[in-house]
Each structure stands twice: as structure tokens, then as C-alpha cells.
Amino acid sequence: MKIGVPKEIKNYESRVAVTPAGVFELVNCGHQVFVQEGAGEGSGFSDDDYKETGAYMLPTIEAVYAMTDMIVKVKEPIAYEYNLVKKNQIVFTYFHFASSRELTEAMINSKAVCIAYETVTDAEGTLPLLTPMSEVAGRMAIQQGAKYLEKPIKGRGVLLGGVPGVPPGKVLVLGAGVVGVQAAKMAAGLGAHVTILDINMKRLRYVNDVMPSHVVTEFSSVYNIKKHIKNHDLIIGAVLIPGAKAPSLITRDMLKDMRPGTVLVDVAVDQGGCFETTMPTTHDDPTFIIDDIVHYCVANMPGAVPYTSTLALTNVTLPYVLKLANMGWEKACEQNGDLRSGLSIVKGEVVAKELLEVFSLPLV
Predict the structure, then answer these.
(1) Fewer beta carbons within 10 Å, N or C terminal of the chain?
(2) Is 228 tagged catalytic?
(3) 300 carries a ligand binding annotation
(4) By the 8 A CB rule, do 46 and 67 touch?
């Protein structure tokens, strides 16, 4: 199979979907890999690194799409790429269709085979291709939140860890999944007081068992959320419904109950966001303020740490890329339930039930 690795062109997206080591594995299996020049530079891989492992280097993104049977990316195609996607071409990447009708309709019109990293589900019911980026994003949420709590950036002026004689900052985490647990771990490590809310008691018991005593668990309810937003400095939105839009747990009118300079970090922005006031931002302009509340809603947070993120992502995606390349998408999805769960749009037809619910699109 001819496999294409284009350079990511989303704002400040420096990750790459296949490393030189991945190229080596694919070439050894008899496949041809076409990499756009400069695709790996942001993650620390030179064109020469790719050439040495057998990749063919192409000068433009157009050439990569035109030459290949399967495109492997990190982020969803943006508008410029819509017309580059070919009929019957496999596109394997993070799509987050639920947050963009425009993207969904463009991929339907392309007649391509779209397999979404974020809905690939293994036998244990976990999301193996989303997990490493959720781990990165959860940890980054605290790193960024701590920064934007600083007064020069319009935050409350709170040091999360506090100092002797001064109490630590308070962090509220909505969701005890991978993002939430990683965020709680980082916040606790800084010395902050952490409250983590979820409706899944099994997850709350797990958090209670593995976290230090200054991480407190509570059942998530509108009442408890309204109670805690009044006195927490940093609020992390970390709720995921695979393939569907995230629920709006904090509404616009609830902002008035927060203290000025409170920081909201919405890690679920790719899926529409946990806050009603969420609007996707970029690393160029990461925050906005509504009612004196600082919002950080960058849609590709792990893109800011591409070296770490690329290695973490490709560790888990390469086995699936190999299956698709070795068997073809139909046989690979027939024999692998996890890959089959990632199928979203196939040759113009929606096959993911969640998209029907979100956009009322036709389902085969």
C-alpha cells in the first residue's frame, strides 16, 4: 500500500503521524511511505531521518494526497485539505466529527473511508488511541491553568501550591477519566487542593484509592458543581462521551457565581466543550475572558509539546496503521473490532451512530 504522511497545517500543530521508526516498520512490510518535506521537523525528525528509513519525500501536501492510498495524520483535515482527500482513500486521524458539521459534510462528500482515532475502542472498552493524548492534555491543563492564574494574564493571582502560612489554590476537575485523573495528579503534585467530580462511582473509588488525601472525590451533580465553582480557582473540563458532543456542565449564567480571575480550561473543546461559553482557541491566542472569567480552550493542546506527544501517539497508532496497510481497511475492520469501532464515514455514508444523533445525518 502507498501511505501518505502530510505535514500538519493546523495552527501550531507540530506533531507528525508517523516517525522514522514507523516508516522503517512499514517499509519492511513491503509498503511505500510518502512523507511531506518538513513534516517531522516540529517533533525533532529531519527529512534525512525519514530518507534513511526508506521514505519517499514529497515537496507538497497536494502531492502526498495525490500519490497515496491511505493518509495518516494527527489532526482532522482543515478546509484547505477537503478537496485533496480522494474517493476511496483511507484517512486515519483524530476527526472529532461531533464538533464540526462542516468537516463531517466535507468527508461525506469526499467519498473517502474515515477512521477516527478517538473512537477506536479495545476489548476492555478503553480508547487506546485517545489515551496517550488525554494523558498529555490532562497534565498540560494544570500547567496552563497555573500560568493563566497569574495576575498579569488577568487570573486571580493565585499560586496553586501556596507557600507556608498561605493556603494552596483549589482545583475543580469535572470528570474522572484519563484526562481528569492526570489533571488531578499534576495539581496534587503542585500541592493544590483538588476536588474531582464524576457520576461513575467506580472511577471515584479508584481515584480515592490512588490519590493523596488532599484530592477529594464527590458525586457530580448540578448542585455540587454550583457549590464548588464559587470557591475554586481553576476548573478543568474533562468529560468525554466517545464520538458525541460533550455535555455543557457549566452554563453562561453560572459564571457570575465564580470569583473574578477564575480560570476555566476546557480539555473537551474538540468535542464541543464542557462549558457553554467554550469557543475553540489556538496557541497563538489561547484565552478569552467572559464576565471576568479566563477561558483556555485550545483545541490541540498536546501540539505544544510535539516531541513528547508524537512519541506517545505513534507508540499506539503504528500497530493499527500496520493492520490497515497489511490487510486493507475492509478486512482489517472485519477482523478487528477495535478498528471497526473507529469507522465513522465510509464512501459517503455515515456509519457512526453518534453522528446521526448529533447532526441527524443518514445512517447505513
Answers:
(1) C
(2) no
(3) yes
(4) no
Q: How confident is the model at residue 256 (pLDDT cuts 50, 70, 90)?
A: very high
pLDDT for 108-145, tens place per residue? 999 999 999 999 999 888 999 999 999 999 999 999 99
Does 96 participate in catalysis according to the annotation? yes
Check the CA dihedral 51-55-58-59 and report its sign.
negative
Catalytic residue among 96, 193, 232, 295: 96
Nearest CA-CA partner of 65 in 91, 47, 46, 45: 91
The annotation status of 240 as a binding-site residue, yes or no, is: yes
Is 156 annotated as ligand-binding?
no
267 known ligand binder: yes
Instruction: Give the fold, CATH level 3, of 131-304.
Output: Rossmann fold (3.40.50)
Is 298 annotated in a binding site? The answer is yes
Bridge partners for 349 per DSSP? 346
Mean pLDDT of the chain: 94
Please report, as a single letter, which amino acid is at residue 344. S
d(CA 288, CA 295): 5
Three-state secondary structure call for residue 32: strand
Q: Write down the catalytic residue from 69, 233, 266, 270.
A: 270
* Domain range summary for the chain, segments of one domain joined by +: 2-127+305-359, 131-304
User: What CATH topology corresponds to 2-127+305-359?
Assistant: Rossmann fold (3.40.50)
